[in-house]
Amino acid sequence: MVKIITSELSVPACLRTRADLGDSSVLNLPPTASDYEIRDRYRQLSIQYHPDKQRDESAKEIASKEFLKIQKAYQGMSAPIPSDNLFSNSIGY
What we know:
Elements: H1 18-21, H2 35-49, H3 57-78
Helix pairs in contact: 2-3
């Protein structure tokens, strides 16, 4: 029996989308959100969940974890969508 393992790396870079790069559900945005919408939502959530804004220690701990999730989602969604130039270096030019 052959076990097939699929991963994110099996998708060619030219076919990846923003949804593949970041978790849009953390920012509560559709995968088709514009750069402006992504940045605006990130700023709103980062202010709300910033650990320094919390006064209670337990709230700081929870906010810190959420803040890290928000940062990771923003980095993934705001990253440029990779594209492969099919003709680069194919002929040696």
